[in-house]
Design a protein that fits this description.
This protein is an alpha/beta fold and 211 residues long. 20% of the residues lie in helices and 44% in strands.
């Protein structure tokens, strides 16, 4: 049996390079709030404009200087950042740990999928808004720029595994792919997930098999 070591080596290198091409930056997303125009007006005043404090990795998205309290039946989360720009519907994203503090059973959902989700109270001092729905734990996902989808070998709404390259490496399953020309490549996880995998700024992951 003839063994071509050069051919085997080239195949191994090719597989390694394929994996390296599938690396993606990971970002930890803390609790935050998206507001509609109606609720911005109610909480901050008519025609109020959010004050940009820091731009985020996704184009056009920013953290504002404005902060609110999230009020649940058992507890309150203070000083929660409002993200801009304004949205058509208000949405509150927290972690599983936060859900225990608030005392609310909160479903894991993709951002924007708020049908039949719990409501919650938002407060800016004495100004209070009651949301009928919109409280979620964000499902982990990857933003992919459309021009990068072919290189990463993914399609819209694919479900993939991602191995986190950190001091506490884990494999996250059930990670949803979201593709748009308006995105920059980044995987988003919440702080519970970040703590579990030893996340720190600059942490990357490798996209593994599709599920």
């Amino acid at each position: 049996m003839n063994i071509n070591l050069e051919e085997i080596t080239n195949r191994v290198i090719e597989k390694i390079n394929d994996k390296l091409d599938s690396t993606i930056e990971i970002e930890a997303s803390g609790r935050h709030i998206h507001l509609s125009r109606e609720h911005i007006d109610s909480l901050f005043g008519k025609n109020y404009k959010l004050t940009q404090a820091k731009y985020l990795s996704q184009p056009g998205q920013y953290a504002s200087k404005e902060r609110l309290s999230i009020i649940g039946p058992k507890g309150v989360l203070h000083n929660v950042v409002v993200l801009g720009p304004e949205r058509n519907q208000s949405q509150v994203e927290v972690s599983q740990t936060d859900s225990r503090i608030l005392g609310i059973d909160i479903p894991v959902r993709m951002s924007g999928s708020i049908e039949e989700t719990p409501g919650v109270l938002l407060a800016n001092g004495s100004k209070i808004v009651s949301l009928d729905e919109g409280l979620i734990i964000a499902k982990r996902h990857i933003h992919v720029k459309d021009s990068e989808a072919e290189r990463l070998q993914v399609k819209q709404n694919d479900t993939v595994q991602v191995k986190v390259l950190s001091e506490r490496p884990v494999i996250f399953e059930d990670v949803i792919i979201r593709i748009s020309s308006e995105y920059e490549n980044a995987m988003h996880i919440d702080y519970d997930e970040a703590n579990a995998c030893g996340f720190k700024p600059g942490t990357k992951g490798i996209i593994l098999d599709k599920l």
